[in-house]
Write a structure and sequence with these properties.
By secondary structure, this protein is mainly alpha-helical. It contains 25 helices and six strands. Helices cover about 65% and strands about 5% of the residues. Strand 5 (about 560-565) and strand 6 form a beta hairpin.
Length: about 575
């Protein structure tokens, strides 16, 4: 017999029940705190080990852009200063860029890595908090939080989206808290987070409001159903007809019909209340606080104007979706289940629970799950949002199922974890698991020399006039060249190089499709010499195994001036002659 059961027995025999009840509550609270601490430690260990060490494209351009903002302020964030094309630039995540530069400037590449681990850990804990809100089953919340972070492993990087992931999770937490309590202290963070996202990553600013929609849709749907429009229309028609009817006999018949309709309305309401109190699959709640939530959403939308980079919060995503980068960048492409088996498993688990058990799901959660599933199939980058938002929804479903079928097993798990022996065992297991995860890359360099032209950049800076050259480079390593201070033809800020973003409306000049040219030139889909002449290219950098590199070696107009490792640099001789 455990300590809690002993205390409960004492309550029965004791005259002072209140003191004993307080002891039971204290023990229960203490066990909850211990479980949360153990879960937080394990989540942090796992997140730190799964966070990537090797820097990637977006990180490379983030740092110099942040340095530029640090040195020049935010008074003029309209033009690009890193490509030699002289293009307008929206600066979609100027605040994040500035933050990452400050970290890099103080702590170097170690600082970037540590910040990635910290943000990943904060994301993991945030998912755990939301999961606990969806279900009080702490073991399930912990397990699904770990699974959600694992599902997101391909999206974890020193990028602005890592911070916005955290804000999206807390957005859902505060929306649900606001709908429960109706207090302004939960509304203010929603408005502030909208402003933060507009400045940290304005490309996802519209998505912030997508997460409001399931709750609003539930309210309007229930309001529409409660209106009983068909009965109201018939009742209204009969009342008008009764007004113009002269015979008393007919008036009585019409009045009787109106009474029957009113009775039918009350019967419908009674049946609806019964169904909503004991739903079969979907729980529905009509919460009038949603009207205040709409006001909060409108105020949040207005925060997009407080952005020194212009109207990007409202226009960036629209321009991106109209552009041609959606068909070429991997994360924008549609998701295929055959290549994403973890996501396929998650979908199957949802379907199994919803179809083959009597577990109930809240209507907003169903809307959220359906909407994010559709968005994920449309663009695989939404798989990350699916993991962090729908993971806690899955916790709610599994928690409800466990509560009905096997509550005692999970109570035993909680009891084991909150004991000193169980806590040590669980933490040690996660240390062992996480050590195996981090082993392959813990000794890796921060910059992968096989993917990025580290030595070639050193050579360029020592031997070429970077301020007067026009270097053609391929897409995948352009950001690293930018990081080294070498003006680029293109980098991973792909939208900048699409016509939707660099058109000159004042002078009625259409935008240039530099992005397509950058992809087509090494693929020999266009005449490379004509394109190089059009852009005034003086030098060409290519991967050594690129098809175009082999062609240029045999072209008398191009001289190989660097050939080491995975990169080659060519000088375009006709460009020198023209100068």
């Amino acid at each position: 017999m455990n300590e809690e059961e002993n205390l409960k027995n004492e309550v029965i025999d004791s005259k002072d029940n209140s003191e004993q009840l307080e002891k039971i509550e204290k023990i229960s609270k203490m066990k909850n705190i211990i479980f949360h601490i153990v879960a937080a430690i394990c989540i942090i260990i796992f997140c730190c080990c799964i966070a990537p060490k090797v820097l990637q494209n977006d990180t490379f351009y983030t740092i110099p852009i942040g340095e530029y903002i640090y040195n020049n302020g935010i008074s003029d964030l309209t033009t690009d200063n890193f490509s030699w094309h002289e293009l307008p630039y929206t600066y979609p995540h100027w605040l994040y860029d500035l933050m990452m530069f400050l970290i890099y400037n103080s702590f170097g590449q170690n600082g970037i890595y540590i910040s990635t681990m910290m943000f990943t850990s904060l994301l993991g804990i945030s998912i755990y908090v939301l999961s606990n809100k969806k279900s009080k089953n702490k073991p399930v919340s912990f397990i699904i939080s770990i699974c959600a972070i694992y599902l997101m492993k391909d999206f974890l990087a020193a990028r602005a989206q890592l911070v916005t992931f955290i804000l999206f999770v807390w957005e859902v937490i505060f929306i649900e808290k606001f709908l429960e309590k109706g207090r302004i202290r939960y509304a203010i963070p929603l408005i502030l987070m909208a402003w933060l996202i507009a400045n940290l990553h304005c490309a996802v600013f519209p998505f912030y409001f997508v997460l409001f929609l399931p709750y609003i849709a539930e309210y309007f749907l229930t309001t529409f159903v409660d209106l009983d429009i068909d009965l109201r229309a018939v009742s209204r028609f009969l009342k008008i007809k009764n007004k113009f009817t002269k015979k008393e006999e007919n008036k009585e018949k019409i009045s009787k019909k109106i009474e029957n309709i009113e009775f039918a309305k009350s019967e419908r309401k009674r049946k609806r209340d019964i169904i909503r109190a004991n739903p079969y699959k979907i729980t529905v709640q009509k919460n009038h606080i949603v009207l205040l939530l709409i006001a909060v959403m409108v105020l949040s939308i207005s925060t997009g104007i407080f952005n020194p980079a212009g109207d990007g919060a409202y226009t960036y995503l629209l321009k991106t979706m109209r552009g041609n980068t959606m068909d070429s960048i991997n994360e924008h492409l549609p998701l295929t289940l055959a290549e994403n088996y973890e996501y396929a498993i998650a979908i199957v688990v949802f379907l199994l629970i919803l179809i083959f058990t009597d577990t109930k799901i809240k209507l907003p959660d169903l809307f959220m799950l359906t909407g994010l599933t559709i968005l994920t199939f449309y663009s695989r980058r939404q798989e990350s949002i699916f993991a962090i938002i729908c993971g806690p929804i899955l916790v709610g479903l599994i928690g409800a199922m466990v509560e009905k079928y096997d509550k005692e097993t999970f109570k035993k798990i909680e009891k084991f974890v909150t004991g000193w022996f169980g806590s040590i065992v669980i933490i040690c297991l996660f240390i062992i698991l996480s050590t195996n995860i981090i082993k392959p890359h813990i000794h890796s360099d921060y910059i992968d020399k096989s993917s990025y032209p580290v030595d070639a950049s050193d050579w360029i800076l020592s031997n070429l006039d970077v301020n007067n050259m026009k270097l053609y480079n391929e897409y995948n390593y352009g950001s690293y060249l930018l990081f080294r201070g070498i003006p680029v033809f293109i980098d991973s800020r792909c939208d900048l190089y699409s016509p939707e973003f660099n058109e000159d409306k004042e002078n009625n000049i259409d935008g240039r499709d530099i992005f397509s040219d950058a992809l087509n030139i090494p693929a020999i889909s266009v005449n490379y010499e004509n394109k190089f002449k059009e852009y005034g290219v003086t030098h060409v950098m290519l991967y050594s195994n690129a098809k175009l590199a082999m062609i240029l070696e045999d072209d008398s107009n191009y001289k190989t001036i660097y050939d080491e490792g995975n990169f080659k640099i060519f000088e375009r001789l006709s460009a020198k002659e023209n100068n």
